[in-house]
């Protein structure tokens, strides 16, 4: 394929196609295939009953970072330095010193003190520290450290919450990291049922509009339900093997339903075309498997390759999406190429029963649009490019952060506690930056070095005070001297420093503070670890940023290779990469405008905040893969007509008229799956749902029908250009839909 000159049809193009081994199995034993599919679905349902509780809410950290290792040292030697549960006890219009409030605090403190794996780090009613009481003096705080990993900590916190939480005249409310995790798990469980109850009925309506008959519309929906069930089973299996993020449930089920309907839509549409050419159902299915079946395999490969790039990141939040995404793709492809042909075989001619209307195989609208774009490529492409660039502009002031309690609805208990602490309490030190040394030393010399280091740390811009074993320092001067080493800060030859600041930890200022602390020279060059929320932000952004170029290169190279094998062209894969990058820029611009700048906050019930740095990376990989999915749909049809001898104009117009109708319908259905995620109460899921659906809609309605034909018209015969060595590679290894 080195030119666009008219080619004669290839020999055998119009000959009947012999069924392959997959089709021979599904056509001869359709009931057996469907029975096995039903059995697998039943096992998946039974196995995945506790899938949400088996997943984890964390995974944003690099396990080898200083902040993570610092937390591990604190957990081993200084549990009170790392409180992960906050208990607020208060009385509206009352005082923390009222007898009924004190009685409630005593009850809570006694239960916490006797609970396994629980350490009370501080309490207003025990330590009488003024910063542990609210400014209005109506609420007091107990800081607690709960031992164990995420699962153990969540279970212990849930048990304590069930026993102690009270919503009455004297309220007892739980917050902090462990309670946030429990609230997120509970919210995701509710959201999953809500989203699917919305997406599935709407999907059925859209399928009826696309196919016009109940039989043709029902088949893709059944495949979609099978894909959702299989996906949940795969996630539960993955959770038994490795850490999997709870957020992957919503993405995986939406992606599973969307891809299942996409592939089924492509398959059934092509099958109905082939039935117009052949009265024999097996022959029509064989031709469909040869064409649409290969396109489905190729499209699935592009999605899987994009998701595999997430494996370069050490955060299990991202890695689990790669595993989940690959499981989704395998489940969906299996359903589309095994279960769907068996279902169509059993339906036979009944696929057209209960017709509402008779859709045409090709669309005059998309054909006329493609022809117009080919006549006026610059006039049509320029406005679309300007729209996408305009949408991308807000991305210029993007700010990245780390997900915290603000991903939850404002009424969630842990969110209420966190908002109360932020607005009504002086600095408690619970969000301080912590410096820990596992082998600092002992004796007089060690205390002298502690004093020197604490004084230096207190001079870092933004630091309010530094608490240490030898006292409290402000602006390089000791202000509180205990007279003897404070035992809270000593464990053998280990010690730690609490660097307190009024700066918001998850912010650019907080990151600068953490970097400033790390830049302070340590006496005698003793190894230290800097941890805390601000250090966590620096480590997460640094870890992801360092690996992002590698992930981008892997996506670009693998996508280029796959599209080259499909097209035999060097220019078309480059075009696809550039257009996808332009689309993603527009999506990220809208994400900043909505989720960072706070527009539509009241509508979505979320608070504007810096974007959680891992989410745009995830969105890019998923949306990029889906865009390439549609690229394959379009190019496979254009190439098919081109290889049959059509010139550029005819190949593009006819290819677009048959593919864009399917793409627009598939995009509408897939976007419904993702838009249903807007019903979630977790802003991270809302972010992913809105942005993924926007990427799909922009791609299907602007990029594929306008920019793709405009580019192909501008490139002319260069569309199919490749250097001679690569042409030889394609001749030997190239993949075509139609042969």
UniProtKB/TrEMBL annotation:
Transmembrane segments: 32-55, 198-214, 221-241, 247-268, 296-317, 323-348, 369-393, 550-572, 577-596, 608-627, 660-678, 684-703
Keyword terms of this UniProt record: Cell membrane, Membrane, Transmembrane, Transmembrane helix
Presence of keyword ATP-binding: no
Record InterPro entries: MMPL_dom, Mycobact_MmpL, SSD
Subcellular location: Cell membrane
Region Disordered, annotated ranges: 1-20
Pfam families recorded: MMPL
The keyword Cell wall biogenesis/degradation appears for this protein: no
Topological type in the membrane: Multi-pass membrane protein
A cellular component term, taken from the record's GO annotations: plasma membrane
Domain SSD: 219-346
Primary localization class, coarse: membrane
Family, per entry: Belongs to the resistance-nodulation-cell division (RND) (TC 2.A.6) family. MmpL subfamily.
Name of the protein in question: RND superfamily putative drug exporter
Species of provenance: Actinoplanes octamycinicus
């Amino acid at each position: 394929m080195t030119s666009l000159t008219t080619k004669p049809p290839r020999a055998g193009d119009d000959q009947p196609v012999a069924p392959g081994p997959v089709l021979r199995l599904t056509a001869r034993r359709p009931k057996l295939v469907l029975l096995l599919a039903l059995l697998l679905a039943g096992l998946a349902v039974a196995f995945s009953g506790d899938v949400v509780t088996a997943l984890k809410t964390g995974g944003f950290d690099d396990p080898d970072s200083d902040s993570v290792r610092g937390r591990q040292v604190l957990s081993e030697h200084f549990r009170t330095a790392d409180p992960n549960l906050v208990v607020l006890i208060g009385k509206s219009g009352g005082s923390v010193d009222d007898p009924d409030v004190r009685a409630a605090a005593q009850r809570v403190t006694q239960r916490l003190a006797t609970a396994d794996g629980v350490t009370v780090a501080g309490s207003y009613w025990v330590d009488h520290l003024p910063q542990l009481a609210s400014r209005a003096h109506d609420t007091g705080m107990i800081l607690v450290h709960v031992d164990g990993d995420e699962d153990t900590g969540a279970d212990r916190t849930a048990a304590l919450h069930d026993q102690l939480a009270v919503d009455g005249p004297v309220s007892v409310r739980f917050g902090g990291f462990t309670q946030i995790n429990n609230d997120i798990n509970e919210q995701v469980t509710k959201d999953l049922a809500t989203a699917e109850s919305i997406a599935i009925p709407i999907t059925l309506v859209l399928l009826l509009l696309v196919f016009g008959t109940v039989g043709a519309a029902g088949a893709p929906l059944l495949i979609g339900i099978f894909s959702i069930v299989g996906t949940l089973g795969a996630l539960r299996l993955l959770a038994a093997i490795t850490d999997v993020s709870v957020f992957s449930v919503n993405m995986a089920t939406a992606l599973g339903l969307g891809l299942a309907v996409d592939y089924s839509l492509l398959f059934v549409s092509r099958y109905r075309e082939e039935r117009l050419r052949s009265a024999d159902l097996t022959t029509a299915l064989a031709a469909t498997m040869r064409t649409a079946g290969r396109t489905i395999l190729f499209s699935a490969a592009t999605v899987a390759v994009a998701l595999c790039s997430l494996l370069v990141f050490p955060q299990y939040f991202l890695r689990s999406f790669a595993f989940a995404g690959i499981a989704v793709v395998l489940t969906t492809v299996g359903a589309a190429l095994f279960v769907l042909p068996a279902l169509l075989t059993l339906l036979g001619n009944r696929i057209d029963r209960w017709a509402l209307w008779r859709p045409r195989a090709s669309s005059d609208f998309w054909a006329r649009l493609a022809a117009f774009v080919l006549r006026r490529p610059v006039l049509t492409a320029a406005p679309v490019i300007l729209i996408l660039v305009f949408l991308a502009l807000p991305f210029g002031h993007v700010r990245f952060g780390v997900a915290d309690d603000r991903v939850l609805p404002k009424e969630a208990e842990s969110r209420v506690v966190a908002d109360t602490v932020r607005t009504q309490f002086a600095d408690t030190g619970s969000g301080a930056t912590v410096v820990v040394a596992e082998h600092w030393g002992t004796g007089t010399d060690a205390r002298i070095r502690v004093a020197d280091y604490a004084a230096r740390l207190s001079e870092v811009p933004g630091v309010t005070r530094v608490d240490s074993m030898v006292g409290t320092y402000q602006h390089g001067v000791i202000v509180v001297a205990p007279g003897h080493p404070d035992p809270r800060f000593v464990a053998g030859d280990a010690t730690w420093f609490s660097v307190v600041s009024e700066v918001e930890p998850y912010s650019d200022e907080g990151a600068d503070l953490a970097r400033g602390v790390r830049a302070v020279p340590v006496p005698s060059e003793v190894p230290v670890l800097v941890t805390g929320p601000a250090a966590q932000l620096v480590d997460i952004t640094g870890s992801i940023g360092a690996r992002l170029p590698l992930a981008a290169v892997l996506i670009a190279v693998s996508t280029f290779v796959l599209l080259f094998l499909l097209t035999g062209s060097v220019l078309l894969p480059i075009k696809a990469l550039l257009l996808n990058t332009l689309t993603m820029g527009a999506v990220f611009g809208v994400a900043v405008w909505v989720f960072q700048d706070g527009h539509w906050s009241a509508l979505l019930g979320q608070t504007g905040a810096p974007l959680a740095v891992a989410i745009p990376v995830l969105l890019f990989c998923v949306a990029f893969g889906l865009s390439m999915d549609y690229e394959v749909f379009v190019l496979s049809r254009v190439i098919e007509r081109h290889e049959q001898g059509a010139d550029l104009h005819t190949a593009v117009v006819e290819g677009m008229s048959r593919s864009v109708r399917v793409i627009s319908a598939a995009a509408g259905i897939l976007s419904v799956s993702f838009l249903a995620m807007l019903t979630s109460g977790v802003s991270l899921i809302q972010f992913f749902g809105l942005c993924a659906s926007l990427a799909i809609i922009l791609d299907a309605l602007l990029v594929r029908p306008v920019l793709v034909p405009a580019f192909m018209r501008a490139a002319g015969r260069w569309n199919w250009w490749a250097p001679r060595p690569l042409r030889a590679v394609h001749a030997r290894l190239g993949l075509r839909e139609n042969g």
